[in-house]
Amino acid sequence: MPIPAPNLYPPFNTIRLSHVCLNVSDLAASTKFYSDILGLQVTDANDTHVYLRAMEERGHHCVILQRSAQPGTVEVMGFKTFDEEDLDRAEAFFQSQNRPTQWVERPYQGRTLLTSDNFGIPLEFYHKMDRLEPIHQKYALYRGVKPLRIDHFNVFSPNVDESVAFYSQFGFRVTEYTEDEESKRLWAAWMHRKGGVHDMAFTNGTGPRMHHLAFWVPTPLNIIDLLDLMSTTGYVGNIERGPGRHGISNAFFLYILDPDGHRTEIYCSDYQTVDPDLEPIKWDLQDPQRQTLWGAPAPESWFQHGTRFVGVDTQDSTIAASPIIAP
Amino acid sequence: MPIPAPNLYPPFNTIRLSHVCLNVSDLAASTKFYSDILGLQVTDANDTHVYLRAMEERGHHCVILQRSAQPGTVEVMGFKTFDEEDLDRAEAFFQSQNRPTQWVERPYQGRTLLTSDNFGIPLEFYHKMDRLEPIHQKYALYRGVKPLRIDHFNVFSPNVDESVAFYSQFGFRVTEYTEDEESKRLWAAWMHRKGGVHDMAFTNGTGPRMHHLAFWVPTPLNIIDLLDLMSTTGYVGNIERGPGRHGISNAFFLYILDPDGHRTEIYCSDYQTVDPDLEPIKWDLQDPQRQTLWGAPAPESWFQHGTRFVGVDTQDSTIAASPIIAP
Amino acid sequence: MPIPAPNLYPPFNTIRLSHVCLNVSDLAASTKFYSDILGLQVTDANDTHVYLRAMEERGHHCVILQRSAQPGTVEVMGFKTFDEEDLDRAEAFFQSQNRPTQWVERPYQGRTLLTSDNFGIPLEFYHKMDRLEPIHQKYALYRGVKPLRIDHFNVFSPNVDESVAFYSQFGFRVTEYTEDEESKRLWAAWMHRKGGVHDMAFTNGTGPRMHHLAFWVPTPLNIIDLLDLMSTTGYVGNIERGPGRHGISNAFFLYILDPDGHRTEIYCSDYQTVDPDLEPIKWDLQDPQRQTLWGAPAPESWFQHGTRFVGVDTQDSTIAASPIIAP
Amino acid sequence: MPIPAPNLYPPFNTIRLSHVCLNVSDLAASTKFYSDILGLQVTDANDTHVYLRAMEERGHHCVILQRSAQPGTVEVMGFKTFDEEDLDRAEAFFQSQNRPTQWVERPYQGRTLLTSDNFGIPLEFYHKMDRLEPIHQKYALYRGVKPLRIDHFNVFSPNVDESVAFYSQFGFRVTEYTEDEESKRLWAAWMHRKGGVHDMAFTNGTGPRMHHLAFWVPTPLNIIDLLDLMSTTGYVGNIERGPGRHGISNAFFLYILDPDGHRTEIYCSDYQTVDPDLEPIKWDLQDPQRQTLWGAPAPESWFQHGTRFVGVDTQDSTIAASPIIAP
């Protein structure tokens, strides 16, 4: 199945990914991980929720830690729309796709539409979020990996072709993709709204499950600093893969796991994709450099482990794993 | 005069700045500067023109060097529109502003509209440009400062309030600005389309003149490499200011001059500005850290020198220079 | 006067510079500067003294802050000898030079010889200092500029030829030097014991006064981090010069002033000088790139300001300042 | 067996490791690897030998490529002595150890003593080598990983205790070591002369064989640049391990293989070890972080593969491999 043409005039305008709500078992342990180690700033905290933002963000939160009886699951992925009316247009779109929709109350957010994608991933859309003072020049606050902003989500999909087709309808555009040369099926795809390589990526596997969320950092040296810090403060076991450079996206990367197993990518070296006529880059599933340009294989866990969306059943992938299994 | 509200639904959709055509005296000397020293890639060259692109760009050119009897002037600044129809909408808009418009032939570009802004800066808009193969992972080609993409233009304006008002009409949004607290006049403003701090910036002074064009590079270490290279290959006199960090934009910067005096900024550490409700950051003209966060003053030349647009008369600024004159 | 040949078999064996004792007015303010901002670790503190070490050092202290009625003066510069007997040999040497010598008690140090050089700079030599646990892999402790070790001293000398001759006698070797082509007098010289560019440097001017002490850091990015931190925590006025690269020594540098005016250099990119037949590199006083490879001039204060050694009279330089005065 | 006390007054004074001669099958292919990819500078070349130096070195060569019928073997490892007389003292020492000695002619070197260590590793000592002009500030010459200097050798030894005892006699000092807690045998040891972590390291295994030679580079970003270059110019298969940080030595590292299988480490983040009373750091063989601070295991080849010294028989290690085999 070929890559669908981008829909340049989508039914509603999504600006970018915005935030994720993660279900965790121990709020203090998770806060320590995301705040002290990773370096996000706490913007609010109570007995059940901790809100955090990255250093250049002015919206109230990009990560919400939620104390839960189902830790290690993802509650919802959030996106920001261009204007208020886009929320109503989004409601109409998801209803037309026979997806459930409802308006929900979210602290620090304006009107928020809760819905889900074709495989049931809970998505919420909002336009207004409380805006905070800039802190990107308060250098005394920087710590950990010095995360600048949330960059993207990556999810396991049991059918990447269908996921790409679904998100293409509302304007997500493919920047790079991996195709199985034999079946001509998509193995993985990277789709964006905000002008970088991706806001949302899909990779073949039992799903839907979150593969990872990602933060953008200034330079590879910040990632090296994080590795040094984690490996000498009791978190060496939370380092899963990297550092390395992906062939796909050309990103310098590191993958780490939080105390409940949610995976985070630390990421730099993205490129700009605002041109509407940007040609997607195609990778062959047989090319091992698409995963790691430098050749080092990813660990098995990286292909198998993900965190489920709370209450959402998963399906096995519809593509049999090829001998060199890889997202 | 307050900052105008951004026009979120502009009459035509400009995606980003795209390229500049610089008039030069010695094509070989300028090519050496932009290609061997700076690190741009030559995509075509003939007796009168040399075309170059940066490492992650797939459009044919971001800089055109044009052999000219009026070296040290700028021929035109180019912008890319979202679609083909935006060109016609742009024509209608500029005509409504009593600006001259004409359709011109440009090698490697599709239909191209030549017009000018309220102070006469020659602008051209196109939608299609020849697309080239990706080279961002051909690491053997990287050299010089490893420029990834053209980032922005900065021009002297005799009336920044009027420049900002003009560009605001077609959707440029202010991200940061400097205000003279006494007169409440704008001293400088940074405006974007593509989701970074700026595509176009205006600074008070005799104008219109180009202050600089800018390239985005991966890390400050690339800028240090360029300084080492220039200072040991006969170009130490072409280093004008930096390295340093601007308060405004938070950019790590270096300013250099080409053989004809055109100024280029090398730039990293931008931030993302896609939110339509992004609040512009205001700086006080009396705050010296807005220019250099670290305190070092800019040299006099940086405030005085610019390169004229060919055939365009300049006007003195309408704001008397304050004691601490500074863009 | 030519550079003296190195004395490869000196009367006693000095391993390296070791520490400095700085007289300060406000122990809390100075501790904040050296510990919180610069990133040294406090190893002991009482009402009158604070001891600090850098991250890879295992000796007890490299900086001693001493509360004093004569703040802004330097108490003494310390050096470590190869063995215990070298102390007695040093005593004999300095006595042979008609320099005063005495054995003094210093906390955390073994037997310590206090003496002074030919212009009266107070020097102390010891062999044993309390050794502390390694902390260079305790990455949670790193902050500020991440200083790894004290690197060198630099002093104003009223007669650099004589200073170089004096230190050459006990084995300091010249790595680079600046000569006034007309008078054939030394303008400045860099001398080492430990195998880097310098342990001690001399520069022409009213002296003896300390020009600066220096710390070695891993990469230029650490220096950029320090600049960002200082300029947003109330220390922008303490930034004096840089960042830049010296022609001499090839060091990437930054100069900052502590609350009492003591100057510190942050330094990286040294080279190895252990070869006994290493040829000193000669620079011409007329070459501005010897100071800053990239061409930017140093501020006037950098040539004029230094901190005196407590109780030591200074003399004017015996070389008339050339038009382009510069150390 | 405990670590022997350092011999601070050795029978002869070795300054540092100096160079290695590698036997290769295809002089052009090896030259391309070491010069174009790695970035060493060719200082002389003929039909049978190519000489190279690193960027801050002023000695004529640090690597000699020798066309050979026994490619993939090492001809000799070279060391520089403090003075000419040290060569005669070295001859006496090695004769006293019943090691063969002879004076050999080496191009560009003065009087050269060829001998071998207790396991037969061919060693040569010289004092004088042709000195070349400094090129460390000729930044246009820098390429590849920007190697600054040869840093150390690492060899497989069938009995590390005996190797350490042998080198200790002539003044090599242990900086870090790994001990098998059960047998109290040394598993690996790092020994230096020049004031860094090592000039020579020993690791348990079939030996003697060269494990690797190493080059010092300025920052981790240079290593990332090399990875990007190698992986896109046909050398992805030559990348063996890394990037990562060793627990031991705290070095940021990368291991690559040349066309004949000789292993090179690219290395930065060393620390200074000139103190004669520096305490060696002990690591437990059971601690996986001693190898990779960040936890990633080394590939099997890294424990097994080495290159033999030409004409020298190897012996199996006298320590049975523990379950977690590792040098």
Automatic annotation (TrEMBL), chains A, B, C, D:
Molecular-function annotations in GO: dioxygenase activity; ferrous iron binding; lactoylglutathione lyase activity
Cofactor: Fe(2+)
PROSITE patterns in the cross-refs: EXTRADIOL_DIOXYGENAS, GLYOXALASE_I_1, VOC
InterPro entries: DHPA_dOase_Mn/Fe, Glyas_Bleomycin-R_OHBP_Dase, Glyas_Fos-R_dOase_dom, Glyoxalase_1_CS, GlyoxalaseI/FosfomycinResist, VOC_core, Xdiol_ring_cleave_dOase_1/2
Limits of the VOC domain: 16-128, 149-269
Coiled coil: none
Domain of life of the organism encoding this protein: Bacteria
Keyword vocabulary terms for this entry: Aromatic hydrocarbons catabolism, Dioxygenase, Iron, Metal-binding, Oxidoreductase
Pfam family, one: Glyoxalase
Family in the record: Belongs to the extradiol ring-cleavage dioxygenase family.
Protein name: Homoprotocatechuate 2,3-dioxygenase
Organism lineage: Bacteria, Pseudomonadati, Pseudomonadota, Alphaproteobacteria, Rhodobacterales
